Each structure stands twice: as C-alpha cells, then as structure tokens.
Amino acid sequence: MPPPPDERGQPPRRRRMLALPAVCPCEAIAPAALLASLLSLTADAAGLQAGALPALRGAAREAVRIAGLLHAFLDAVRGGPLPDEAVLGLSELHVALQKLRLLLADCARKGARLWVLMNAETAASELRVVMGSVATAVDALPEGAVAGAASAEARELAALASAHAWRAAARLRPDPEDGRAARGVRSVLARFAGGATPDAEDARHVLDRVGTATWSGCAEEAAFLEAELLERLETGGEDDNDLVLIAGLLAFLVYCRVILFDRIDDPSKAAAAAAPVMTRPPARCAAWINPEALRCPITLELMTDPVTVATGQTYDRASIKKWIKSGCRTCPVTGERLRSAELVPNVAARGIIEQLLLSRGVPLQEPSGKHRCAVDKTAAPFGAAAAGGVRLAVAFLVARLSRGTPEQQKKASYEARKLSKRNVFYRACLVEAGAVPWLLHLLSSGDASVQDNAVAGLLNLSKHPAGRRALVESGGLGLIVDAVSVAARVEARQNAAAVLFYLSSSPEYCEEISRIPEAIPTLVHLARGGAYRGRKNALVSLYGLLQCADARGRAVSAGAVAALAGLLLGSPAAAAEGDDDLALDAVALLARIAEQPGGAHAVAASSELVTRLVDFLGESASRSAKEHCASLLASLGRHGGDGVLALLGKLPGLMPALYALIADGTPQAVKKARWLVNEIHRHYEQRQAPAAARTPAVAGDHRVIRV
Fold first, then answer.
1. What pLDDT, on a 0 to 100 scale, did the predictor assign at position 365?
2. N or C end of the chain, less CB within 10 A?
3. What is the pLDDT of residue 12?
4. Is 497 inside a domain boundary?
C-alpha cells in the first residue's frame, strides 16, 4: 500500500533539519519495554563526540553529559522492580529524549556543518526547550515509586541530571566563535552581492571553524545544501527566505572549493576523517526484513527509488517509467489496467531499504530524474549573493583553464565539469565567461582525465543554446567528431557522441555536422559495438543528423543499414547487452533512412532483415516502435515495388500485426498500416487476375481483405 498522504494530499517527506517530531509511547506499554527504549535513546545521545560538532560545541557537550547521567540512572533503575505509576513520567522523558537525539544528530550531520553554523541560534533555542522538557520529566517521576527500584546513588544521579538540565535550559547559548564565523559568512555574501572579491582569509576562517579543511569536505557541504534547496522547492517553499540563504551558502562553498583548494583529495579518506564519531555500534538490519521482497518485480534488482502505482504495487521508479513510456498501460504484477500513470514515492519502502543497506555498509543514492528538475531548470539564482559568488568562481576557473599550469588545468577542467552539471545558471555563467574555447583546446591534452573532463563539460554546456552556439562558433564541430573516434577513454568517446546529439537538435548545426566526412562513419562505427551507453548515444545522434536528407545517403554509404541490422538480428554485442530500446532506436533510424529510395533498397536487400522487422512489429509492446516499424515497411513497399510487396505478402505474421495496428494504433501508424494492406492486396489482385480467368480458385488460396 502507498504511504498515507499528509494534510495537503502529498506523500510524506523526509524530516527537515531542526524539525523535531516525537511519538508518545502508548499508555499500555510495559515498563520494562519503555525502560529499554529509554536506555537506547540515552546511549545514542551520550555516544556523540561533541567536540566534533561544527557549532554549539559547549552546549552539545553539556547535553551529552546530561544524557550520560540519565543513562547511568536508568541503567540502575532497570535492576529493580518498576511500578506502573512511573510510566507517565518515563513516557514524558521518552518524548524529550527523542527530540534530544534528533537535535544532536542534526548538529552532527555530515555535510551540514555550515548550515548548522548559520542556524546556531535556532538550534540553541531548540536545545534549551528540550533541556527544559528533560528536567521537567525527571522531576515528574514519582519519588516513592522510583525509590523502591533505585539505589541512593542512582537517585543522586537523577537529581544531578535534573539540576544540570534546568541550568542548561536557562543558560545554553551558541559559542562566541560561532557568532563570529556566521558574521564572517554574511560579510562574504555581502561582498558577493556587490560584485567584490572577498578576503580569502575570511572564507578560510569559516571553513576552519566548521572543520572543512579539504576539497571533498567542501563538496560534501555543497551537496547537502543542494539537496536541501531541492527539498524546499519540491514542497512549495519558493517564497521561503531560507532559499536565498541556502543559495548564497552554496555559492560560497563553490567559491571556496574553486579558489582555496589547489588539489582534489580522496573523498573517502576526507569524509572518514571529518565525520563526527558515534561510539555505538553500526545499525543492524531487522530480522523481519526480507531482501527479496525489496526487489523491483521488473528488473529483479534492489529498488533505489521505490514508487507505488495505482494498483498498489511498488516498483523502482526508472523501471516502471520505462514500462509506461513503452506504451504498456497495465500493472506488470497484477495485469490490471493502470487508471493513472501517477507514481507515488513509497517512503516506507525506501526507509526499509535504507536500513538494509546501511546495515551492510552501503549508502543509498539519492533519487534522480524529475526530483532534480526544479533545480536543473533554474535559469536564475536565488539572490544577488548567489549570482555574484558563482560568477567570481567561474571567472577564476576560466582563467585557470586558459593560462594555468597542467595541474591547475586538470583541476579546473574537473570543476568545470561539476559546475556545468549543476543547473542552467551555472552553464550560462560558464559560457559567458568564455569556457567553451578553452575546453575545446583541452580535447588535445595528453592527459586522459583532462580530456575526459573537457568532453563531459562540453556535453553539459551543449544542453544550453548559448553553449551550442559558442561551440560551433569556436570551430568545435570537427574536434568533437574527432573525439568520438580518437579520445583516450571510452567514456569520453561516448560523451562526444552525446554532444553531437545536442548539436544536431538545431537544423543549421545538423547540416553542418553531416557535411563533415568523418561524422556519420564515426557514429556508425560506435553504434556497431561496445558498451550500451556508447551505442545509445551514437544511435540518437545519427537520428538527429538524418533530419537532413543528404545525410541519409551518406549513412547508407557508411554501412549504417548493416550496423542497424546487426542490432535487430542479434549481434553478439546486442545479445550480451540485452537492451530492447536499442532495437527500437534501430527501427526508428531504418525508418528514416528508408524514406529515400536508396535507403529503402538497401534495407530491402536483406530478406532476413525484412522478416525480422515483421516479427518486431508483432512482438513489440511499444506504440512508438510499432509506428516506426509500420512507417519503415510502408517505405519499403513504396520504393521497393512488387518484389518487396510479394515478399511481405508471403510473411504469415504481417497481416495480423497490421490489422491489430489498424484497430489500436496511433493515427499515423493506422494510416501507414492501412496503406500497406491495400498495396499488398492490390499487388495480389493484379498478379492473380490473368490466372483467375483460366484457373478456378483452389481452397487455401492466399486471400487479403482490403481495408
């Protein structure tokens, strides 16, 4: 079942930072069970190393000390009989300790150091409230009831914990250094907003305060803020003032990452060194969790982004989206027709999967796809500070690309790759700053990683109209075509093919690319074999280039028909990969090639390929695939003449597939299928007319119904 919606009709979302929900134990809970849960909560809180926190170190140290006192007290109480009268007071303490654990976990959260620093006042206020609740709950414990279960020393521990909690509730404040560091951040953001370069020492002081001394630590902080920004956009918080602050802090971290660090360190080692240490052992997977039940019914792989469809079944988002996109409108498990294509995030299932993976030491990746659309489509930043910080960082980056040392260029190319992937505004800034010509220059680098970064950066920038224009005006078409065939790494060749796809989306660039002699043969060669991603990029790029009629003849000359036939007829590479969408792409390309007589003759020359196309028409569940296939067969019949029509008429699976398409196909597919049926009928009528006058009809003659 999907998770219940909240009051706005939306599926429940993850807890926001510094939000402290708590559940009160039920009235019928056994005292022993409640006490065991309290011991777990206090152990969690007392196990935090407060010195590793970026802010509120003094306050957190006091909270950890109080949690330790409570743990010792509760451990002593557990040894004796606990009356039912103590349940109410212990329940109140349980609620307060839940909030304390959440608050300390937020303050110690990896990647959230800068955000906690900027919200230190809010966190301190919440901590004072929680400490007051703890003190009140301890004082509310019935003295007579607890006295029978605890020693005199334990009662002294409770009194001491209460006194410390009351003192903390009255006096806890952020550390003075927290305030100075926060003011330093606001000073830097103000300079960003004015277009001025901030003092590097001010920025370095802030990073030192939050314990972010490495490039990877800075990147981790930026990743957290980006996720926080995305969450607020998804929940409709576009008017939230925090958006401006989050975007400004994100720009601050990008600026620091680009300018203050000369090298990129090992992220895994840096994260291990910077993470706050908890003394509790790692979480264990609950015994009742069945990992097999968490596999997607379509792929049989563990789900990473579980969603629920209208029938109540849960699938991995990517798999069910691909299923629906292919034209299937039924539930793969139940066979019921899907009344809606809406996908509801299954938060409960995701939480269980997270618990399973964390128990095995495997992190769960954040979902992608439409969940990133809000940020990815952001064409303007949130505030002048964010815009100014990004522009300063990008200007420095382009300077390093143009005249830096080889090591500086290597780091700058990686930064350009990362930033260009972030959103539209970052891409626009990079294009305006002149990054495209220098990334093209780095395509000839002897360092494979630099070359790979340059191609990936150009791929991201080619998604922006100004980036495509800059790439063409800088003379980059030939360089990109060369990279498809001669780049040092397979990933770079695949990305270069994807760049050609984005460039071919513009008709004027499409024609210019198709005139490069090596362009189409290079893509055909890439489509013949190799990894799935490379062949996929080559196919979609070819499809874009074949918008130009002149390019279709060049594709035939380059052996495109044979390469595409290999995908459909089960070449070793295709069989090993097992990706049906490559076959769909191959049919779409063949349909475009066959629109001209030369292309149609090249396809019709292989009777085995024609037979496979007919089988594909009957087997495919995709409406778009059926439309492309019908269009291709119609083109063969139009340009191939009676020979092709005779061949098609002999294939037993063709007519049932065409009639099914006429009954339930797209308007364009119905038109093509009806035309082909009538042409085959006409061909047989003409061929059999002279014989009909001399020979009586024989039972079992091939008959075709005109439609």
1. 53
2. N
3. 43
4. yes
Is the pLDDT at 343 greater than 70? The verdict is: yes
Residue 175: count other Cβ atoms within 10 Å of its Cβ.
18
Give the C-alpha separation, 587 to 593, whole Å: 10
C-alpha separations of 383 from 145, 190, 193, 329, 432 in Å:
59, 11, 8, 44, 19
Contact 640, 604 (CB under 8 A): yes
**Residue 493 placed within a domain:** yes
* Interatomic CA distance for residues 163 and 68, integer angstroms: 14
Whether residue 673 contacts residue 661, with contact meaning beta carbons closer than 8 Å, is answered with yes
- Is the whole-model pTM more than 0.85? no
Question: Do both 639 and 672 map to the same domain?
Answer: yes
Report if residue 423 sits inside a domain: no
Closest CA to 70 of 51, 96, 52: 96
Distances in Å between the Cα of 232 and the Cα atoms of 240, 350, 485 are: 8, 20, 43
C-alpha 565/C-alpha 569 separation (Å) is 6
What's the total number of domains in the chain?
4
Sign of CA dihedral 489, 486, 545, 505: positive
Please state the length of the chain.
707
Least confident interval from 198-207, 370-379, 472-481, 649-658 = 370-379
Model confidence pLDDT, tens digit, residues 93-146: 999 999 999 899 888 888 899 999 999 999 999 999 999 999 999 888 877 555
Same domain (yes/no): 36, 170 = yes
| CATH, residue 491 | 1.25.10.10
Same domain as 630, residue 570: no
Q: In terms of C-beta density within 10 A (0-12 exposed, 13-18 middle, 19 or more buried), how is residue 270 classed?
A: buried
Q: What is the pLDDT of residue 698?
A: 42
Domain containing residue 99 = 31-174
What is the C-alpha to C-alpha distance for residues 458 and 454, in angstroms, rounded to an integer? 6
Looking at 174, 193, 208, which one is the last position of a domain? 174
Strand-pair partners of 316: 306
Q: How confident is the model at residue 426 (pLDDT cuts 50, 70, 90)?
A: very high
DSSP string computed for 558-588 = TTHHHHHHHHHHT-HHHHHH--HHHHHHHHH
Here the tokens at position 209 are 């305060």
Greatest mean pLDDT among 50-54, 304-308, 340-344: 304-308
Q: How many CA atoms lie within 13 A of 300 on its CB side?
A: 0
Are 554 and 632 in the same domain? Answer: no
Could you say which of 116, 141, 174 is where a domain stops?
174
Cα separation, 474 vs 584, whole angstroms: 35
| φ/ψ of residue 281, rounded to 5 | -65, 160
Gap between the Cα atoms of 694 and 677, Å rounded = 26
**DSSP 3-state of 337:** strand
**Which amino acid is it at 453?**
N
Residue 468 domain-assigned (yes or no): no
What mean pLDDT do residues 676-699 have? 69
Note whether 572 and 626 are same-domain residues.
no
pLDDT in tens, 56-98: 888 989 999 999 999 988 888 876 667 777 788 888 999 999 9
Round to whole Å and give the CA distance between 322 and 306: 14
Degrees, nearest 5: CA angle 135-139-143: 155
d(CA 337, CA 430): 47
For residue range 478-521, what is the model confidence (pLDDT) as tens digits? 999 999 999 999 999 999 999 999 999 888 899 999 999 999 99
Helix residue spans in 605-705 (DSSP H): 607-619, 623-650, 654-663, 667-694
Task: Check whether residue 562 and residue 527 sit in a common domain.
Answer: yes
Tokens of 114: 């800068």
Considering the domain architecture, whether residues 37 and 129 belong to the same structural domain is answered as: yes
Which of 439, 398, 415 minimizes the C-alpha distance to 262? 415
Contact (Cβ atoms closer than 8 angstroms) between residue 230 and residue 243: no
Burial label for 120, CB within 10 Å (0-12, 13-18, 19+), is buried
Q: What is the DSSP letter of 306?
A: E
